[in-house]
Model the fold of this input.
Amino acid sequence: MFNNLKRLLKSFKYATTGLMYVWHHEQNFRIQTFVSLCVVLAMVLFQLPLWQVIILILLIMIVLILELMNTIAEKMVDILKPRIHSYVRVIKDMMAAAVFISSLGSAIIGLLIFVPYIVDLFVNLFYNS
Done:
């Protein structure tokens, strides 16, 4: 049992090391993390219902995981270098497109969720004062 706990803690250490690498080397990951924290703050401030919170957390996870996968693909493909195969650039572009599509879709869903709350906030500020 103690060996299993030791292995589990070791795997957490590896995961943390990977996250720290991406944090230090990938600007887009830092930007997406900042936006994610803003969304979480807005979820708390607007006291969203649980189903909206679940959707937003899932979207945050999808975007961040795809960004991690994009970084993994870029590092693996960089090993091959473009001189080995012309698809290297195409693979990188497709991974970037996956992150872009998930980010765009998440932003649209986020707007659909938050705009009514923001409108209500302004209506209450200007018409109830």
